[in-house]
Automatic annotation (TrEMBL):
<dbReference type="InterPro" id="IPR038292">
    <property type="entry name" value="YmfJ/YflH_sf"/>
</dbReference>
<dbReference type="InterPro" id="IPR021637">
    <property type="entry name" value="DUF3243"/>
</dbReference>
<protein>
    <submittedName>
        <fullName>DUF3243 domain-containing protein</fullName>
    </submittedName>
</protein>
<dbReference type="InterPro" id="IPR024702">
    <property type="entry name" value="Uncharacterised_YmfJ"/>
</dbReference>
<dbReference type="Pfam" id="PF11588">
    <property type="entry name" value="DUF3243"/>
</dbReference>
Amino acid sequence: MGVLNNWEQWKDFLGDKLHQAQKAGLDQEVINNLAQEVGDYLASNVDPKNEQQRVLSDLWSVANEEEQQAIANVMVKLVQNNGSK
C-alpha cells in the first residue's frame, strides 16, 4: 500500500474514507467502531511505514480496548478535514 508510506497521504486517504462513510449515512458511533476495527487490523497485519505510524502502533499495542477506542476516535477527528469533501 503506497498510501501508507507518507503520513499526509495516509491522513488524506482516511479523510476520503471518512467522508464516503458520512455521505453513505453512517453515524458517528458506527464510524468510530469501524476506525477501531481498522486500527486492530493495521496493528496485527501492517508494519508501520513512518514515524507517526510507529507511534500509533506502539500506543495501540499497550492500550486496553477502551483506550484503543479513544485512539480511534481521535484519529477520526484528526482526518475530518483531510481528503476530498
